[in-house]
Design a protein that fits this description.
InterPro entries: AraC_XylS_family_regulators, Class_I_gatase-like, Homeodomain-like_sf, HTH_AraC. By secondary structure, the chain is an alpha/beta fold. It folds into two domains: about 200 residues, 3-Layer(aba) Sandwich (Rossmann fold); about 120 residues, Arc Repressor Mutant, subunit A (Orthogonal Bundle). Helix content is about 50%, strand content about 10%. It contains 15 helices and ten strands. α2 runs parallel beside α12 and α9 packs parallel to α12. The radius of gyration is 21 Å and the shape is elongated. The two termini are about 20 Å apart.
Length: about 325
Amino acid sequence: MANIAVLVSPRTFAVSLGAMTDIHARLGEVFESNEALGNYAGVATRLTIAASTGVPVHFAGGMPLPCSTTFTAIEDARLIYLPAFQVATIEHLQAILKAAEPFHVWLARAAAGTPIGAAGASVFHLAAAGLLDGGECAVPPRLAAAFQDLFPRVSVAKTRTLCVSDGPAPRITCSRDWQNGALAVRLLAAGFSTAIAESLALREPPEGDAGFVPNEPDPVVARARTWIRDRFARDFRIADLARELGVSHQGLIRRFRATGGDTPRSYVQRLRCETAASMLVETRRTVSEIAQLVGYRDIASFRDVFAAHAGMSPSTWRRTQQCSQKRPL
């Protein structure tokens, strides 16, 4: 079961915690509306909220936060998210960091191969664990000077409010609460797949740069992409889509090509292949079962399209990805 671990600190901001709990709920919406995506993860994800210090934990403002365990109970997290918390004074922040020293040791170990995101003051936890050394991160402006004093080996971004490190297991930092949704979408992309992240971002575009919502200049094409994403595993005709949008079949193709160079048919194929690639790694279903779940009745056709998309057969993709323990596409 894929575990999404949320590690909270004293005085956690509800809006920051909600960025991940809400995106997890929307993950369920995606599963329910598309059988292929539902089977991709077996609807087998769980969200665990644990404390970075001791329990009980309270929200900023004093309300109890539903958290009954600590970080020591977290095992094999698919991704880790640290929501922002309230800092009254620098002395208060230093006290939290001191109490969280065992958590920082755990975080450094858990970071191997695991995408981690931190919002607001929680960026200090990543730096204390040594996970940002030599890189750049986004820090709330009022805490930037204190951060630089404590962690001189980490560069503070001057203008960017969302920073993403390179690599398959990125460290994502966010300095503004209103961008926490974008941070959460990026974590889902790194922990699951870009196909899942794009579905979530298109369903409810987050504030800020999530990186998965194309700047679509043609509203008809934007509606078409959303319509296809909700139906790509089913049998349907592009002519039916064109009729629903009030344009001709050829007119829709021309509009697609004008905005991205692909066609509605190639867009459907890409979505099917991205989803199949995820399912090949995340599930034990056979290639034949996956082909049918993503919309192909003919296994030979699926193999041909997948090979053209990924550069290798579905079986080879599964074997190489599982051996390297990389996330799909």
